[in-house]
Amino acid sequence: MKPSERNEKIQQLLTRMYGLAMEQSTFNTPCEEKLERIVAAKEPSYREVLLCIVAHMLIDPELEASKDWYAFHPRGIYDKGPVKRFLMEHGIPHTKSGPLNITKAANINSAWAERRDSSDIANCVIDVVSYLESHNLISEIQEIGVSLIKKLLREAKRIQELSVEVKPSTDPDYISDLCIKLIDNVPDSGNTPQQIASKLLKYYHLSMHSEIRVTGGDDRASVTSTTSNKPGDVNEEWCNRILKVYEITVKPFDEERIIDSYDCIEKFNQHSEQQIREVIVICRPKDCPNQIRTSGLSFYLGSIDHQNVRYYFWNIYEWVVSMLQKMPDEGKEFFLRSLNCYINDANTSEAVKIEWRKLHNIE
User: Fold this and answer.
1) Mean of the per-residue pLDDT values for the chain?
2) How buried is 1 (Cβ within 10 angstroms: 0-12 exposed, 13-18 middle, 19+ buried)?
């Protein structure tokens, strides 16, 4: 079967199971407790792995993920394939490439589970896979698949109900207070400050009718500059040239982080006609490296040189306030709307959603 034919068939199977899930309210499969735990787990990748397995076993019930996970073609059916597309279409929280990242080329067995941080959830996946492999009638595989999809749809509905509809505001004090509380209370592994920073830059330039384009803000903080082939977390560009490079962090910008940043810049410089020699680090005062040349100021904290690149450190709190104060009202309104859309997105951390509700006095 050609990959295109396989993916079309899986799309049809997922659509059929979705229809059955919408019609059925209760399930009595032997795996119900395991499925509930897998769907409720903090890491969505486990349920993505299981959905890939179920979908592909409906085409070939003889496949065994415990012995040959790559026979399921996880990259082909998930990353740019029907499984991820199905999750996106139905507002189900999902990852960019979860099944590949969480399996690390391993088969779905006890040896894999032992290496996982959430080994209890991994073992739940193994238990369901073992059941599927020993009860591989199409009807039984489909029953597990329909139950799994029903639970995923319930999870999507629960997450969607956390959404907030914010009132428009152009008050820089009010908006900056929201941003600072989000940064302090729910940094979400750096995603929150990176989203705030990139959106502030983006809507500042748009509202000033500038031709400068802001790039990098759509990536999650876990995506390294090396992986994304960009010199910094966020960049300002004009006419295909990078004007400024920003690193956004609420973790110590220590020697290791500086070396990683420098390596990314050198890699970029080697493949570019321009040479990046300055980086602006937007961080908290306590995140500055010990060897920084302090400025004695509160906004500009100081600088440090690493080989031929200079790093300037700016206070993230004061920078947020200053950006909002100098931004036209149109920019502030669009920024707040965009930030709310990001928080309401199905894939944004639940902790961020809950904090956002608290900030708007919604329990």
Assistant:
1) 95
2) exposed
- SS3 per residue for 301-329: EEEEEECCEEEEEEEHHHHHHHHHHHCCH
Q: Which residues contact 115 (CB under 8 A, 6 or more apart)?
A: 104, 106
- CA 162 vs. chain centroid, Å, equals 18
Judge whether 125 and 49 are in contact, CB under 8 Å.
yes
Task: State how far the Cα of 246 lies from the Cα of 31, in Å rounded to an integer.
Answer: 48
Q: In terms of DSSP H, where are the helices of 190-315?
A: 191-207, 225-228, 255-270
Confidence of residue 226 (pLDDT cuts 50, 70, 90): very low
- The span from the first CA to the last CA of the chain, in angstroms, equals 51
Judge whether 38 and 127 are in contact, CB under 8 Å. no
Residues 46-60 pLDDT 10s:
999 999 999 999 999
Tell me the average pLDDT across 129-138: 95
Please tell me whether residue 214 adopts helix, strand or coil conformation. Answer: strand
Q: Cα separation of 208 and 198, whole Å?
A: 16
